[in-house]
């Protein structure tokens, strides 16, 4: 008889991509991919990431139920909870989750929507950890935020650990005689948002990063930007700065890997972080799309590398990508550089257009993928029974300073 953990592990991912091509990101947890949940009776894929004790709390029965059974359980619990419940679904969630979402959008839009639903006592955030934290920061005291699977983190957010950022800050401010303003991407821990609030900085999203950098440089001489080097670089270049104005800060390396002179000369310190999903897109893929689809428009996310953003026709946030495609003329052809669940949804919802992913090896965000319908059914069943599981609660001090950084962002918006 397999252990409980093993049985859950086998059931978590049953994804097989028809072409047989496998995902090659550093987050290979999902292994081969199928974009539909197939239930526990399909062939299992080995190589799924190990489970933590928190995962093991879910009764294995939930991960052995068919998709239809889970769908019914989720809807039954939703009905029982009524307006006490709001379910948020990030654009990168799989279809089996998104169909249950009251709202879908990017992380900040969803947090704002949640903040406007004061009647809902429970906010179930189908996304990753930092998003649930942001929702908790912006929510009212009587609201509780729930992340269905506590293992759903963001590999990019994890690249900036609070201790490393504090050490970087101490070194920079102790070495450089200049005003440095910290700017964190929304994709970061609540403690880093609070760090920015305490130190005169702010939060930004991929929609308002240009305005955030301008705000920072109106108040300081230099910017420490984390955790995504690509968003920082692409935004600074767009503002007219040169590659020579920036350097990469490597955490846990003395002086981030630079001489004091280099640190003094730079305007932007870009954290050595990246998104494993968006780092996969390449100029070769764009070249292939243009050769094989005359008239194609290439649109990518600013978490892509500089050369990819340069080679694309447009770039912007997930909200902008969705809007551009949805509002384009019938017959338009779009090659998209962002997460596959969103691209597939845009393809389905725009049957009068051709929409495809730039990357032929379809690769979802594997951490987003950890929000399995079984986890959603489980947390909702528990809520309907009056028990809150997998709550994300940010402490009061962190909330206070993170709100300062978020409010600065709202003011520039
Ligand atoms: S797509 Fe990238 S940045 Fe977004 S949650 Fe996944 S790993 Fe994080």
Terminal Cα separation, in Å? 56 Å
| Strand-pairing-aware structural class | alpha/beta
Average pLDDT for all residues? 87
CATH topology of the largest domain: Rossmann fold
- Overall geometry comes to globular
In this entry the ligands are: iron/sulfur cluster
Number of domains: 3
What is the radius of gyration computed over CA atoms, rounded to a whole number of angstroms? Answer: 21 Å
CATH class of the largest domain: Alpha Beta
What does this protein look like?
By secondary structure, the protein is an alpha/beta fold. It folds into three domains: 4-152 and 367-394, NadA-like (Rossmann fold, 3-Layer(aba) Sandwich), CATH 3.40.50; 157-275, 3-Layer(aba) Sandwich (Rossmann fold); 278-357, Rossmann fold (3-Layer(aba) Sandwich), CATH 3.40.50.10800. Helices cover 41% and strands 14% of the residues. The chain is built from 18 helices and 14 strands. The chain has helices at 4-12, 53-56, 67-81, 95-98, 107-116, 129-138, 155-158, 162-175, 190-198, 209-219, 229-238, 260-265, 283-292, 306-311, 318-326, 340-349, 373-384, 396-412; strands at residues 85-90, 103-105, 122-126, 144-146, 180-185, 202-204, 222-226, 246-249, 268-271, 297-300, 314-315, 333-337, 354-357, 391-392. Strands 2-1-3-4-14 form a five-stranded mixed beta sheet, sandwiched between helices. α6 links the parallel β3 and β4. It is globular. It starts with a helix and ends with a helix. Mean pLDDT is 87; it is low at 1-22 and 24-56. The chain binds iron/sulfur cluster (SF4). Iron/sulfur cluster binds at residues 92, 128, 154-156, 187, 275-277, 339, 365, 367-368.
